[in-house]
């Protein structure tokens, strides 16, 4: 059977000091001599004492814990961002409580209730749907600090995010500028109301005088490399074959690239491919992939700063603010100019 919780009284009994002296020493109070503080800390360490954060939180009304809700822990960009957020919060003295919705709206609602039940001081969230966010808006209306990591200016919520519409526009515009008109789209987010990338793609086509052709758009029904491979198979079996592909993320783009290699298509000579997120694997693919960069460090720092401002705002939250970051296209071998 494990040892019970070590209390301040146990340290007091071991050292002969009062519990008040022990408490002050462990908080590094200058009222206690340095030698006494050192002796008490050594005794606490020998007893494996841990501060009672629950008791502290009841007094301060802070748990120094932030909830981070992801849609998919296997997504390389979200994994990278989660790591960066955890480090940024740790620098500010906060722990991170992770949870995943698995791209399921009902599961997301349950996860938010679970995270809130742990009395976290605030929440950072990648919502499953960019439009179905009434349950998240309800948190803010209740004066609860929450920052989305995707969003739009009309959401009524705080958000720090990459401007996905702008990024998709730039990716498609890049393909148009190097001579492509038959541009395929692999994007599965639209059924969830996540229309930004598709709209950016359509905007670039329209600006160039190219009609949007539904036959060149395919829903991969997922976000993985395998789903990208299967989507490419379906797209190339259709009535019209593209000369270039814009993929909503790099995993899907890697799947499209794998399909091309397996089926004897040269990239970029026969098919140009560009992804989104600029994950590490994109640069080191057999044909290095062009991609829209997702600036993890910038998103992380701004999102954490905004959440800290909300937490420190007192009894009433300030008006919501949406910060959209204009991403850049990273051009690699998969979209070299055709000659």
UniProtKB/TrEMBL annotation:
The keyword ATP-binding does not apply. It comes from Devosia ureilytica. InterPro entries: HTH_LacI (IPR000843), LacI/GalR-like_sensor (IPR046335), Lambda_DNA-bd_dom_sf (IPR010982), Peripla_BP_I (IPR028082). Pfam families: LacI, Peripla_BP_3. Keywords: DNA-binding, Transcription, Transcription regulation. One of its GO terms (molecular function) is DNA-binding transcription factor activity. The keyword Transcription regulation applies. SUPFAM superfamilies: lambda repressor-like DNA-binding domains (SSF47413), Periplasmic binding protein-like I (SSF53822). PANTHER family: HTH-TYPE TRANSCRIPTIONAL REGULATOR GALS, LACI-RELATED TRANSCRIPTIONAL REPRESSOR. It comes from the Bacteria. Residues 6-60 form the HTH lacI-type domain. This is LacI family transcriptional regulator. Gene3D superfamilies: 3.40.50.2300, lambda repressor-like DNA-binding domains.
